[in-house]
Amino acid sequence: MNENNIQTKPHNVIIDNRRKMELTGVRDVSGFDEQTVSLITEMGGLVIKGTGLHITRLSLDTGDVTVEGNVNAMQYTTAGTPSKGLVSKLFR
Q1: Chain segment 68-91, per-residue pLDDT in tens
Q2: pTM of the predicted model, to two decimals?
Q3: Domains of the chain from N-terminus onward
Q4: Phi and psi at residue 87, in whole multiples of 5°?
């Protein structure tokens, strides 16, 4: 494989009754609170909006994230990805 080719992980989103989201292909968490979770995925930025949101599982090694709470909306924000997110800034 050429050095310039970047291996990407598959990105999937599974929403269970608007109460639980299981995501794969997540590179980083750029921010979160009870109303908004912002992620950097293999497909760009993703913003999840709702109430009572919390991250119950986070593994950036495998790219798996589970978000629970009342999910009202989700939106992809960009095709590109910022270089660093919240988690990578915390663990310098």
Answers
A1: 999 999 999 875 544 455 555 555
A2: 0.77
A3: 12-78 (2.60.40.2000)
A4: -65, -45
